[in-house]
């Protein structure tokens, strides 16, 4: 992987020219990847005999040979060795062959790697995927010189999900009038000592105290995940719920003897997915359920002192017949999930008796107890 470069990293490379045809035409994305871009010379070009197409099921395009067609592209000249190392690192997760066109390198996708699906539009990509892609690129580039491109690429989906979570947080409501805010925190250091599907970040920071003074610089760590959708299926006609059961590593790591958790349906929200859509998708994957309606219960941090996790909690009304139970889950994610039917009274008895060790389950149980009559009357 591209790592440390020598003292001539800012000198032009023997071929400091690159032609880009897809997302790297976006100036803001290039700036995230390269840092400084003022030294580059840019010129629009047309690639005769090529077309740029959307990749089926993905957020990026491919370029293909196409007789009689032409593709808009951008030629970048003046790239330094460090520039090329950074670009190669970022692109390494997308699979490419390096070829030359008109004396400039171009990242060419291997034939047969992707399936094309219609024309690709830069402006449409910027509208639909630009913000998340740029935010994800910032995390990707934070690993430059530390991890291999392959390591980062294997976790790119989770990186994008975290990027979307960050954007939802930034778009959320600010503090109540007079309360302290993000502007009252000074950051002095930020590192990621652990990076896998999840990550762990450490920060050296100082925050404003309630008396107006600043705290000393302290080191704080947090588990870094993505936002999750959690939904409790409820049948207002039959007056019962579905809980799913699966192995959870948290209780196992803590030392508990019971490591299988009874809980609502839950899952991480994909990068380009709304929380409600994630709730519907997870219900189908884990229990084969379709909801007639979703009722928002809460949007909250479960453990803000140690984790970035943020939950979107719902009660979903659905038809829950006797044969709805079974075992499901995504095979590719090694999920083994059993679903269970409980009457409302049985659910409350378990909750009141301390049988539920999952906090979101208890929160949803309390909400359902308060709103059950409304749901059964069809007026919620």
Automatic annotation (TrEMBL):
CDD domains: GGCT_like (cd06661), NUDIX_ADPRase (cd24155). Acts on ADP-mannose and ADP-glucose as well as ADP-ribose. Prevents glycogen biosynthesis. The reaction catalyzed by this enzyme is a limiting step of the gluconeogenic process. GO terms for cellular component: cytosol. This is ADP-ribose pyrophosphatase. It catalyses: ADP-D-ribose + H2O = D-ribose 5-phosphate + AMP + 2 H(+). The lineage of its organism: Bacteria, Pseudomonadati, Pseudomonadota, Alphaproteobacteria, Rhodobacterales. It holds the Pfam family GGACT. PANTHER family: ADP-RIBOSE PYROPHOSPHATASE, UDP/ADP-SUGAR PYROPHOSPHATASE. InterPro entries: AIG2-like_dom, GGCT-like, NDP_pyrophosphatase, NUDIX_hydrolase-like_dom_sf, NUDIX_hydrolase_CS, NUDIX_hydrolase_dom. Its cofactor is Mg(2+). Belongs to the Nudix hydrolase family. NudF subfamily. A motif (Nudix box) lies at residues 267-289. Mg(2+) binds at residues 266, 282, 286, 335. It is an enzyme of class 3 (hydrolase). Keywords: Hydrolase, Magnesium, Metal-binding. GO terms for molecular function: ADP-ribose diphosphatase activity; ADP-sugar diphosphatase activity; metal ion binding. GO terms for biological process: nucleoside phosphate metabolic process; ribose phosphate metabolic process. Residues 224-370 form the Nudix hydrolase domain. Its EC number is 3.6.1.13.
